[in-house]
Every structure is written in structure tokens, then in C-alpha cells.
Amino acid sequence: MSHTQTYLAEAREVIERIDVHEVEKMVGLLRAARDSQARIFFLGIGGSAANASHAVNDFRKIVGFEAYAPTDNVAELTARINDDGWNSVFANWLKGSRLTSTDVVFVFSVGGGDLQHNVSPNLVHALQYAKEVGATILGVVGRNGGFTAQVADACVIVPNVNPKNTTPHTEAFQAVIWHLLVSHPDLQMNPTKWESIR
User: Fold this and answer.
1) C-alpha angle 119/106/102, rounded to 5°?
2) Residues 105, 138: contact at Cβ < 8 Å?
């Protein structure tokens, strides 16, 4: 089989193996959070940061959340990294945003954070702070889910069907899952443009 055929076959397998119950649990938590006027904070690094930015747009416009991502403000992000360090950048940003127990922290990550291997320690410290505050934690992650999966109230782990393609499948399916969420009838408040044109 060609690379294209193999990649698409892997994508089909990922879809078949997604934990639907975990997705529906996420829907319920998001609905309850929105009903209590919670804010939602998306955290991601690299490609997952781009996904976080896109998700902020969709959750604000389609679902009616007050939503933010620290990586959308490059001035504050780089000032915090420069002054306070990479490890604390997200935790300090959440503190500056006055994170509360009614808010949601939503992580997009390939590995989910791992202090032992010094992978995405900024996510780990942010989630430790979120747990301390009592915020709801959600995630869409890959591999074994890392620290995010350990502490999340609901976490979709993108099945690792081929270790050579862990990152591309995880980041692609982050988009699949958040688009599923914003189009879910229990969450969607506003129609998307093309679907609203008759």
C-alpha cells in the first residue's frame, strides 16, 4: 500500500477506536459548565496551540462560551516565558486570569505532559494549578495521555494505531473532536454559516 492508503487506513482505525463514552462525558461537562457561565481556557503547544486558537473561535461563536487561549497573545506569552520561565507560563497565565472552580481548562497535546521526561512541563504545572483551584479539566491527547489523562475529568485519548504517526493523527483528531463538540446538538447554540444558507 502507498503512504496515502496506509495513512487513511490508520485514520479509519482511529475513528473506529475513539471512546464515544468519553466524548459524551465531555459534552455533559461542557453543557453544565456553560449553564453555570463558566469560562473555558484552551492550552496547547506547537500544532496544538494552533488548534487551541481555532477552538476558541468555535466555542465562542458556535457554542456561546467565553473562551481564551494564552498562546493567542504573543506579547504576554513571551513576556511570561522571558520573565518567569517556560515551565510556569500557563499556570501563571491562569492565575492572572483568575481561574475559578467553575471554569474549564481544556488541553490539546500529543503527550499530555510528563515531568519525568521533561515533556510539556508547562501543561503539567497548569493542570496542577487547575486541580488546586478545582476547575474542570478536559483533554484531547495522544499516546497514553500523560499527566492530562491522569487528572482530567474527561479525556479523549486518540488511539495510537501507528507510533510513527502519533503526532499527525493526534493533532488531526483534536480538530475532529472539537468540531464534533461544537456541532453536538446539546452544545451548539448558533448555526455555522454554510449550514444556515438554504
Assistant:
1) 130
2) yes
Residue 190: per-residue pLDDT: 85
CA distances to 35, 93, 138, 142 from 171, rounded to whole Å, are: 29, 23, 16, 8
Cell numbers of 2, please? Answer: 502507498
Sheet strands side by side (includes 154-157):
66-68, 39-43, 104-109, 136-141, 154-157
Residues 33 and 102: beta-carbon distance below 8 Å: yes
Instruction: Using pLDDT thresholds of 50, 70 and 90, give the confidence band for residue 124.
Output: very high
Strand partners, 188: none
Residue 68 lies in a domain: yes
Q: What is the pLDDT of residues 38-60, one digit of tens each?
A: 999 999 999 999 999 999 999 99
Count of domains forming the chain: 1
Look at residue 148 and tell me if it is in a domain: yes
State the cell numbers at 14: 482511529
How many CA atoms lie less than 13 Å away from 42 in the CB half-sphere?
32
Sequence-ordered strand ranges (E) for 44-87 = 66-68
